[in-house]
């Protein structure tokens, strides 16, 4: 299995999508001989699907086609060399994946045929068992359906631990702690901007363009920050580095 789970699509000083992860992605493309990819853009609500595909084509140097043109989306996934799932609204993305019958085809492509999966923001969220740790507003009336479950632990992308002056609502830490209190058997990995988790075969690694760590939230345990994935060895069935 080959997964790139990115907190976000780009950094403020980067003109290209996935720029901070490009070196890692290009190495994977070379290993897998990737020349094309299918984009699943359903998370985008106020952006053009084809424009996003073109941006990715320019950034990655491969042919990128948006799945919204397909009459039979599941068949497109069956032929895909690589799957790209864009950021945007996680609720809309997960709903459309179910409506278009793509949950099982994507799971089979990634797990059985080893098709690489690259997802950022919402695309990262839907790779986990559920979207309950998304930061997004539920703009549709969809129920909380299961997501792809390619990665077995919940992730909170776009994680930030800053407390804005004058903001009287709960902090991100408090919201994640609430999730863990309601779901004490589950853990949450918090990914800061410019960071990613990479599953390659049975190996898990972590990269941060800013040299920052990730946090792990567990109910009843102190929340700590880590720089490598060995802290996740008790939670995940991978060789953590």
UniProtKB/TrEMBL annotation:
Belongs to the peptidase S51 family. It comes from the Bacteria. CDD domains: GAT1_Peptidase_E (cd03146). Keywords: Hydrolase, Protease, Serine protease. This is Dipeptidase E. PANTHER family: ALPHA-ASPARTYL DIPEPTIDASE (PTHR20842:SF0), PROTEASE S51 ALPHA-ASPARTYL DIPEPTIDASE (PTHR20842). It comes from Hafnia psychrotolerans.
